[in-house]
Design a protein that fits this description.
327 residues, two-stranded antiparallel ribbon, 10 helices, single chain
């Protein structure tokens, strides 16, 4: 009977230890009590680490450090809740309270700076050479010597286009020649002054026959180029046509003086180099008026130099067929 009372107490303690501490620690706790019972020692201080990580200060189950008995389940729950972290919120970069970003969270990517689009260049108009009608010449200016005077008198553009031309005109004295009559001016004014009063979209130049006997090919081409440059300053929107110096008949070329087709051709070759194909164009008028030897058809001229009136139309047709078209 004594044996039953002694071991029933141990069994009750074992069950309480298992419930309170769990199986492994409860068994160890029972063994400690068994040893104390057998040796008569008192219960040792309980130094088991709680779930919250702190050493328990109570020496007995259900007893607080102050010696107050009662339910300790609330204290245990408090240790657990204070030691185990709540579920980590998703890494949104924002704290649960909606304040500063959570440390270690992936920040929202900053928006890339908007690229400034490259300015689109305005495409240059395509240049084509083609045929035009007579109204194309309504804003055209013809500069020249006696041959251009013939175009004015016997051609069809006398009332359509504008002509600054005179017999004996040269490239050297073009701008200073007072040959232009304007309605608002009582006296003729110079070509340069007139170009400051009127604007043109096309300028045709036919000069050079009177200059063949003076200077060199190089000096002539240089002076001609300076005239073209000055025209571009005075009329920046105009297309400039450099017409080839019209050749002379074979009979006139064979006379042996300075007026010959070889000298004219050399100067035409130099003039062709002044064209840029954008605002300045070279027109080989001789291709429409010369024979297979490169001389002016004898039947086309009455003096070997100037065109007969009825052949002026061939010159006009060439200019109609070789106009610059801007699309």
């Amino acid at each position: 009977m004594k044996w039953c009372k002694r071991w029933s107490f141990l069994i009750i303690l074992a069950m309480a230890g298992v419930v309170y501490y769990g199986a492994p620690q409860g068994i160890q706790w029972i063994n400690d009590w068994r040893g104390m019972i057998s040796t008569g020692e008192e219960s040792p201080a309980d130094d088991t680490v709680t779930a919250g990580g702190d050493a328990a200060e109570s020496s007995k189950v259900g007893e607080d450090p102050e010696g107050n008995s009662g339910d300790t389940s609330g204290d245990i729950a408090g240790d657990i809740s204070g030691d185990i972290s709540p579920e980590t919120p998703p890494e949104t970069g924002i704290s649960p309270e909606g304040g500063e970003p959570v440390p270690g969270a992936t920040p929202e990517p900053e928006p890339l700076p908007e690229e400034t689009p490259e300015p689109t260049a305005t495409p240059e108009p395509e240049i084509r050479i083609g045929r035009v009608e007579d109204d194309y010449f309504s804003d055209a200016l013809f500069l020249g010597d006696s041959r251009t005077v013939g175009l004015y008198k016997y051609g069809v553009w006398g009332e359509t286009a504008t002509f600054y031309a005179s017999t004996g005109m040269t490239i050297y004295k073009l701008f200073g020649a007072e040959i232009v009559e304007l309605p608002e001016q009582p006296d003729p004014i110079s070509v340069e002054e007139a170009l400051q009063h009127q604007s043109f979209s096309k300028i045709y130049i036919m000069m050079g026959i009177n200059e063949v006997g003076s200077g060199t090919t190089e000096s002539f081409a240089q002076a001609y180029g300076e005239v073209v440059a000055r025209l571009q300053e005075l009329q920046p929107d105009a297309i400039i046509y450099i017409q080839s110096i019209l050749k002379v008949s074979q009979a006139r070329s064979d006379k042996g003086d300075y007026i010959n087709n070889e000298a004219i051709q050399a100067r035409n070759d130099a003039l062709s180099q002044l064209a840029d194909g954008e605002k300045v164009f070279y027109l080989d008028v001789n291709s429409a008026l010369c024979d297979e030897n490169g001389a002016l058809f004898g039947d086309y001229t009455f003096d070997g130099v100037h065109l007969k009136a009825k052949y002026i139309t061939l010159w006009e047709e060439f200019l109609r067929d070789n106009a610059v078209l801007l699309d």
